[in-house]
Amino acid sequence: MLPSILSKSRNVPSHRRRLRRLLSSFLGRAIAVPPATTITASPPPCSNSHLSSAPHSYHQYTSILQSCVATGSLRTGRQLHGRLLVSGLGSDTVLATKLVDLYAARGHVEHARRLFDGMPKRNVFLWNVLIRAYAREGPQEAAVKLYCGMAEHGVEPDNFTYPLVLKACAALLDLKTGREVHERVLSARWGEDVFVCAGLVDMYAKCGCVDDARAVFDGIAMRDAVVWNSMIAAYGQNGRPMEALLLCRDMARNGVRPTIATLVSTISAAADAAALPRGRELHGFGWRRGFGQQDKLKTSLVDMYAKSGWVQVARVLFDQLTKRELVSWNAMICGYGMHGHADEALKLFNKMRVEALVTPDNITFVGVLSACNHGGMVKEAKKLFGLMVNVYSIKPTVQHFTCLVDVLGHAGRFEEAYDLIKGMSMEPDSGIWGALLNGCKIHKNVELGELALQKLIELEPEDAGNYVLLSNIYAQSGKWEKAAMVRKLMTNQGLKKIIACSWIELKGKTHGFLVGDASHPRSVEIYVELERLEGLMSDAGYVPDTMPVFHNVGDDEKRNMVRGHSERLAIAFGLISTPPGTKLLVTKNLRVCEDCHAVIKLISQIVQREIIIRDVNRYHHFANGECSCKDYW
User: Largest Cα–Cα distance in the chain?
Assistant: First the structure.
């Protein structure tokens, strides 16, 4: 009986208890409600259809249903739905629309669709409700199909329809349909609506068309925070973080107040650009604006500080989180992983599973596997891979396989690595073969290196880095003729080696250096500082390692080539431009060579500074003559 059902509300929120008391008093104690699981669009034969003619009853049904939608009271709404079917009001357009809205909002899209399909009259609001549900819950294809069906039923989309279908197109990476929607938006004169434009920017960004997104953005006369946030996120999501940072400044100059979404997107961009000063500036701005206690902001700061080398600060912020969601755990675990703090990453991973009872996802396992890779933990990596597949039933992605192949290759376990590649359920990509080739370089495995290069050339025929790596393997093995042959092949195909570059940001300005660079205004001072450091290192027993120079030239020339590496120039500039004790962060677009790695360890001990190098593979923390990678990278 309905009264007995409604009375079980001791642990229900107060607004829902009031709603149920209202429903109970309205329907009376003598009315039995049919099972709520029966959802139909047309009413069964009813013996009390006279209730449908009572105006006060209809208005009360409408009011209660609206309250159910507002509070998300699915259980009460289903009970009332059953009552509507008995009373003959099950097919009423207004009431059924509210029921569709309730079911869709609570994730019961199938029930909402069944009601929708049975309704003879469907206005644009009803179409939007269902399109929104499919765009959010999936399948997104159904949202696009419904949108296309609106024209067939003579229903004109409005400014609420377009953002919803564009969201579905973005999720599907359906650029073709997205462009068609854009054309219709322009013809329907919704091109100035901020929410429609934000949807277009997001759709183009998700599909990788950032310039198209910017064209939409530039065409908007009156931009609010929603539109600015969409464009900032578009740059950040597509590997253009510096443009995201510049756009955030433009936003402030145009008098648009940043929101929490602005800060999260811009801080993420600062993290990707390793722009620590900008990130700290945004951190302070967020605190001054009153966002300091919001977990969304703190989580983005955890990611930013971790990627900028300040792992301890990231951990402090992580520990301050009110509620640690999966994304927060992933940010901190991946932060430890990229810096080579394998023990801390594994400890936090176990705490997450055992104490916090948070279920890891595929990103979590990328983080811990990466940590094992950077820490040389082969046994632990294999165990975690098995845990992911057998316990959590997570299907391995190419990223997971790449981590495992990399750690096996680093350890020289090529047979296991190659067997793993051959047993993959998907086609190995360039990352897989690149990881194997890198292992071959470390252990001078020429035969398997040639095989890996052959696969890489098939996948990336225009990537000069692959040829360079094989040439280096030949050079390490003393096979200078083959090394020269590979370099000649590069020349014949018009391929050029990526120029090594390092940069350091000081006082809001980025200073870049190439190998042997003498273009910096303080170049003379930089080289004087390098000579001073070389003298102190020689006194400590340092002898240059010219193995990283893969050219058939004399030792003196090799030593000069190593001496002018870009990361050394950036470090020397940082030392002469900052007070003693200042931590330095240098970013390099290629892997740090073995000799520079040894040199930077010595420099950190001589000048008593912490120096962080972010190269293409990982982070290196140098302090007191040691590196966080423990010479394993």
Answer: 104
Please state the φ and ψ torsions of residue 620, each to the nearest 5 degrees. Answer: -120, 125
Element spanning 587, H or E: strand 584-588
Question: CA-to-CA distance for 272 and 270, rounded, in angstroms?
Answer: 6
Sheet holding 584-588, edge to edge: 509-514, 501-506, 584-588, 611-614, 619-623, 626-627
Taking the C-alpha atoms of residue 370 and residue 387, their distance in angstroms, rounded to an integer, is 15
One-letter amino acid identity for 444? Answer: K
CA distance 592 to 580: 24
- What six digits make up the tokens of 416? 């296991």
The whole-model pTM stands at: 0.73
Q: Would you say 597 and 620 are in contact if contact means Cβ atoms under 8 Å apart?
A: yes
Task: Indicate the SS3 state at residue 505.
Answer: strand
Contact 404, 420 (CB under 8 A): yes
| CA 71 to chain CA mean position, Å | 32
Task: For the chain, give the number of residues.
Answer: 633
Quick one: tokens of 481? 């003729």
**343-383 pLDDT, tens per residue?**
999 999 999 999 999 999 999 999 999 999 988 899 999 99
What does pLDDT average to over the chain? 84
Query: What pLDDT, in 10s, does the model give residues 504-537?
Result: 988 878 899 999 999 999 999 999 999 999 999 9
Tokens representing 628 are 């966080």
Please give the structure tokens belonging to residue 341: 């703090």
The CB density around residue 126, as the number of other CB atoms within 10 Å, is 21
Residue 555: partners with Cβ closer than 8 Å, 6 or more residues away: 546
Q: Are strands 611-614 and 584-588 parallel, antiparallel or unpaired?
A: parallel
pLDDT above 90 coverage of the chain, percent: 52
Question: Residue 512 — φ and ψ, nearest 5°?
Answer: -105, 150
**CA torsion, ordered 325, 330, 333, 334, to nearest 10 deg:** -160
CB neighbour list of residue 570: distance below 8 Å, 6 or more residues apart: 502, 503, 504, 511, 513, 586
Radius of gyration over every alpha carbon of the chain, rounded to an integer in angstroms: 31
Residue 612 CA to residue 445 CA, distance in Å, equals 31
The token duo for 13 is: 């929120």
Per the CB < 8 A criterion, the answer to whether 338 and 616 are in contact is no
